[in-house]
Structure formats: C-alpha cells, structure tokens
Amino acid sequence: MRFLITAGPTREPIDPVRYLSNRSSGKMGYALAEAALGRGHEVVLISGPVNIPAPDGATVVRVETAQEMYDAVAERIGEAEVAIFCAAVADYRVAEVAGEKIKKTGETLTLTLIKNPDILGSARSVFGFTGLLIGFAAETEKLAEHATGKLLRKGCDLLVANDVSRSDIAFDRDENEVELFYRDGRHETLARASKREIAEGLVERVEELG
C-alpha cells in the first residue's frame, strides 16, 4: 500500500532566532516509516525538523512550520491509501513574526497566537481523503475520553493515544506504550516496547484494516 506518514515537531517562528515548538523527537513517526517499508509498502514521509537519518527507500519531504506541513500533506495525500498523522503539530503560531531579533526591554513579553490549520481534521473534509486514516493523540489526562472524541471528530479509522505525562515513554524516548481506539468501538493496548516494535504492531493492524 502507499503510506503517507507525518513525523516530528513543527517550529513556529517568533523572530529570526526564536521559535515555538514541542518535545517531539520524530522517533515514532520514523519507526512507522521503517516498519512500513520493511513490510513492502511505499512511504512518503513528511517530516518536521528532527535529528534522525532518513529511512532508506522513503520519499522524505522536509518542512518546518505547521502551514508547510499542511501544504505538503494537501499536495500528496491524494496518492496515498493510508495516512498516518504522527507528527506533533503546533496548535498555534505567532500572529506577527518579528523581522528582527526581539530585544529584552521589559519584565514581560506578550505574544499573540493564532490557530494553525488542522491537518488531521482536514484529511476527510478538505482534502477528500477516502483511504485509511490513523491519528495520534498525546494526552496527559482522561486519555480514553479525549482519544475517542478525537477519533470521531476527525473521521479516523484508528486513533493511537499515549500518556505523555509519563517520563519513561513517548516524547524523546526510545520506548512507547499506546492505546488503540478503533472506529468500530474496539479498544486495544500495545504494551511498553521499543518504538520500532510498537510501529510493527501498528502497521500490522493497518494491514488488517486495509
């Protein structure tokens, strides 16, 4: 099958030297790309800024901002049969990016933030994607409630959720543990394991859904 996978964080510029971002390392998304490639699938990997070598055999599209990732997905999702949105996309960006470095002139600094485009939420409604849609949810509380809500709102076939409040898994770690929520109401746990092992399990389940 033809996979489109997003991975890593986005960076939203504040001025020429500063940006807003998050703790995503991209390891989970890259592991998914490697697992899909290893099982004979084609992969387009749309990646935010990470320090990970590109997987052999993947078509890698590198982006920085949420808008750039949105545009890259919009351009390529029509060729995919499976779309896995694993990237930790910034929800907001600075309304006005300063052209010069902001100088330290006071005790506080106020930034006005505006919403970034919703990439996962646009897959069905804007891009017209009809293939298998898999989303990720990084939660710190009420994991099942928030994950199932996101699954329904975004039109996913499968929602992969992890508890990022834990220090032993998820962001910037080599291991993960995830909860799988399916559109048909099923729920499954993939117990703590290496991200590559988790990725193998996820790709197997995508193949079953396909």
- What is the CATH first-level class name? Alpha Beta
List the helices and strands in order: EEEHEEHEEEHEHEEEH
- Helical fraction: 25-40%
Secondary structure category: alpha/beta
Broad shape: globular
> Could you tell me the strand content as a percent range?
25-35%
Radius of gyration, in Å, reads 17 Å
The count of helical stretches stands at 5
CATH architectural type: 3-Layer(aba) Sandwich
Number of strands: 12
Give the number of domains: 1
Summarize the structure.
This protein is of the alpha/beta class.
What does this protein structure show overall?
The protein has a single domain, classed as CoaB-like (Rossmann fold, 3-Layer(aba) Sandwich). The chain is 27% helix and 30% strand. The protein contains 5 helices and 12 strands. The strands form 3 sheets. The chain has an 8-stranded mixed sheet, with helices on both faces. Strand 2 (12-15) and strand 3 form a beta hairpin. The longest helix has 15 residues, at 195-209. The N and C termini lie close together (9 Å).
Write the layout of secondary structure elements.
Layout: E1 2-7, E2 12-15, E3 18-20, H1 27-38, E4 42-47, E5 59-62, H2 66-76, E6 82-85, E7 92-94, E8 113-115, H3 119-125, E9 132-139, H4 143-154, E10 158-163, E11 175-182, E12 187-194, H5 195-209
Parallel strand pairs: 1-4, 1-6, 4-5, 6-9, 9-10
Antiparallel strand pairs: 2-3, 7-8, 10-11, 11-12
